[in-house]
Design goal:
The chain is an alpha/beta fold. Helix content is 24%, strand content 25%.
């Protein structure tokens, strides 16, 4: 018997619907270029809750979870490098990109690796596939060769680092798509985890004003604590804005953002990741107003490094830790995925 097969790790296996159970499985030896990581802390992204509730399609059984920070346990033959070009080694504290691309197809060559024609995603792969340990609701995760892996600065705590691999990095891609924000009026639609991070990123980029719109007064108050210069409800009038960043995915919110754009304005859509009613678009207004509408889904490797940079620069200026709950155990994952949303935008799990 292979002595390695006697070494086990534990995963929270999602089997469809609200069925989640803890399973012990053999701990694999990493292959060439692969990195075995021990999960230090994972956070629960809303998309996983949508998967379990049926709003979002994902293969089952599988190990869900994609936002986490971990420690390198072992690197496969030939080694592996981080996004900074340095060799990864056991003991490195790291975060990783959600997508793993081939690097060779036309989309990868064009710089859109997140839309690779053979893309694989952390926390989205079938358990019976060649990559069973793909999710972060587990004690260990195996990162394939070619995955984006970034070392975490010592000054960034686990609770801040974990969401960097999804929420914060996606925000950095969204802000990049918005263009120069210095001196501009920015509207952020939706004050969840992404919206609050977008407020911090816009302020960090030198925006003249950052207005947040959300129907929930508690979320609006949270956005104000993170630097929003003004918060408004969804029934309140919006002033003209130079840049609108829409993160809620609600069709009515998309329409409000379009209507608020001033001449030369730009709307970046990042929250519309599920089917929703179509939004009318007046092409004459777009033409006469020199308006731009663009979309962002996931992010490129550079945005993960940018997310860590934002966290490091702003960790003392805003209460990032308030966005994440006190950590629960791996056995509590089912309750976190199926129960009521918590008081903070992110629930934490320490496997």
């Amino acid at each position: 018997m292979d002595p390695r097969s006697a070494v086990l790790t534990t995963v929270a296996l999602w089997e469809g619907g609200d069925a989640v159970r803890l399973v012990d499985v053999p701990l694999p030896a990493p292959g060439p270029g692969e990195v075995l990581v021990r999960v230090l802390l994972a956070t629960v992204c809303g998309s996983d809750r949508h998967t379990v509730s049926g709003r979002r399609t994902s293969p089952s059984p599988s190990v869900l979870g994609h936002e986490a920070v971990g420690e390198v346990v072992e690197v496969g033959p030939g080694g592996a490098v981080g996004d900074d070009g340095g060799a990864l080694a056991p003991g490195d504290r790291v975060v990783w990109g959600v997508t793993v691309a081939c690097g060779a197809c036309d989309r990868c060559r064009d710089g859109r690796t997140t839309k690779c024609r053979s893309v694989r995603k952390v926390g989205h792969e079938p358990f019976d596939s060649a990559w069973p340990l793909s999710g972060t609701y587990a004690r260990h995760l195996l990162l394939p060769a070619g995955a984006t892996v970034a070392r975490v600065p010592a000054t960034v705590p686990d609770a801040l680092a974990a969401p960097a691999g999804c929420a914060t990095a996606t925000v950095m891609a969204t802000v990049e798509a918005a263009g120069t924000l210095a001196g501009r009026r920015v509207l952020v639609s939706g004050a969840g985890m992404l919206g609050v991070a977008a407020v911090v990123a816009a302020v960090d980029a030198g925006a003249a004003a950052v207005v947040v719109t959300d129907p929930d007064p508690g979320r609006r108050a949270l956005a104000a604590r993170f630097g929003a210069t003004e918060t408004v409800g969804t029934q309140d009038a919006l002033d003209a804005t130079d840049v609108a960043i829409e993160l809620s995915g609600a069709s009515a919110a998309v329409s409000r953002c379009l209507d608020a754009l001033d001449v030369g304005g730009r709307l970046v859509l990042a929250g519309s990741v599920a089917p929703a009613p179509a939004v009318p678009l007046d092409p004459e207004r777009v033409v006469r107003g020199w308006l731009t509408v663009t979309g962002v889904h996931n992010y490129e490797p550079r945005h993960l490094r940018a997310a860590l940079g934002l966290l490091e620069r702003t960790r003392g200026a805003v209460p990032w830790g308030d966005l994440v709950t006190a950590p629960a155990a791996l056995a509590d994952v089912r309750a976190l995925l199926t129960g009521p949303a918590g008081t903070a935008p992110r629930a934490a799990v320490v496997p």
